[in-house]
């Protein structure tokens, strides 16, 4: 079943089908990474702490794992 939900990418403002994008709510990986970059800049208020970078990298892995699980669930 093909679901269609047209949304605008919060990063580049392009309209796309929400269910077609692996990187939602963004239209593509690039927009997702740009947004994560902004997010990290806000997170790294204390850049002298390397442990927070590792924590953030762990968080990226968790997010990616979660998104993969989400897309797997939808294929079933
Ligand atoms: Zn985009």
Q: Your description of this structure?
A:
With 76 residues, this protein is mainly alpha-helical. The chain has a single domain (6-75), classed as Erythroid Transcription Factor GATA-1, Chain A (2-Layer Sandwich), CATH 3.30.50. Helix content is 54%, strand content 8%. The protein contains 2 helices and 2 strands. It has a two-stranded antiparallel ribbon. Strand 1 (6-8) and strand 2 form a beta hairpin. The chain is flat, with a radius of gyration of 15 Å. The model has no long low-confidence stretch (mean pLDDT 81). The protein binds zinc ion. The site of zinc ion has 8 residues, from loops.
Task: Tell me the layout of helices and strands.
Layout: E1 6-8, E2 15-17, H1 29-43, H2 50-75
The structure holds zinc ion.
Zinc ion binds next to loops.
In short:
54% of the residues lie in helices and 8% in strands.
What's the SSE pattern? EEHH
CATH topology label: Erythroid Transcription Factor GATA-1, Chain A
Anisotropy-based shape:
flat
CATH class: Alpha Beta
Count of discrete structural domains: 1
Largest sheet, in brief, is: 2 strands, antiparallel
Q: Architecture, CATH level 2?
A: 2-Layer Sandwich
Determine the fraction of residues in helical runs and give it as a percent range.
40-55%
Percent strand:
5-15%
Ligands, deduplicated: zinc ion
Could you tell me the number of beta strands?
A: 2
Radius of gyration: 15 Å
N→C terminal distance: 11 Å
Structural class determined from secondary elements: mainly alpha
Mean pLDDT: 81
Q: Which segments are poorly predicted (pLDDT under 50) over 5 or more consecutive residues? A: none
In spatial order, strands of the major sheet run 1-2
